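Problem 12. The chain below contains 285 residues. Write out its predicted structure in token notation.
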Amino acid sequence: MRRMTSLLLGVFLIASCVLAAAQHAGPPKVLSVTREWTKPGKNGMSHEKTESAFVQAVTKAKWPTHYLAADSLSGRPRTLFFFGYDTFDAWEKDMKATEKNAALMAELDRANVADGELLSDTDQGMLAYREELSLRANVDIAHMRYFEISRFHVKQGHDKDWEELVKMYKMGFEKIEEAHWAMYQVVYGREDGTYIIFNPIKSANEIDREFGGDWPKFMAAMGEDGMKKLAELTAATVDSSETNLFAFNPRMSYVSEDWVKADPEFWKPKAAAMATKPAKKPAAQ
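Solution.
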């Protein structure tokens, strides 16, 4: 629903995106990701202000689907919006339902204009979940705070080698209980042969643990021969790769009541602060 408003004019803007649920019990089978790059000096509170108009619009409409926003902590300043669906058919039905809601569409159009003034570029990708290449992916996202997102581009004709490579990593990390990730394959919007790995993180000390403990354990589990085969297979299979860190932004997200109840101080910080504020004592007589 969100950012797909220009379809009414018969024009598709890549910045547009239908609103969907990013809050499944497990990773959604279909994931729509909208990326917004902000102009210099227009990220932070400026972007949060324009994005709040989208949140207010869908909250007012009591729209049943939700989305998660995350800001970049590395690379160019940008915000990612995640929208999850069980199927592409569910994505289409949500889009059509939004188009029929004239009041909501009007508010989204106005929000789009204001938000567009802050942006230097936008795009949208559609990803498909690869469960067999994921590891313990059913984590409690409501209590996570970051996504470590890795992009891999596989050389043409090497998809089977890529699957073998990932399964070797799964085997090495299987006994490391803290290790987990969700693997997606790009279907639309990026170069063919692109895979995206999402690693949810609760706090930065998990990053320290990853370098200080998990990786040495992994190398020990693989052994010298296994690490050599990994290196050779990676060189033969992967054309390019990149990893970046993103922080969840509750002020740009439209989350479910279950998420709010799970961690109100994070997802609704103002509401939580008001609820815990002590009652004012009556004035002395």
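Discussion. The beta strands are 30-38, 68-72, 78-85, 119-129, 146-154, 182-188, 194-201, 238-248. Students who got a different answer should revisit the alignment rule from Section 12.3.
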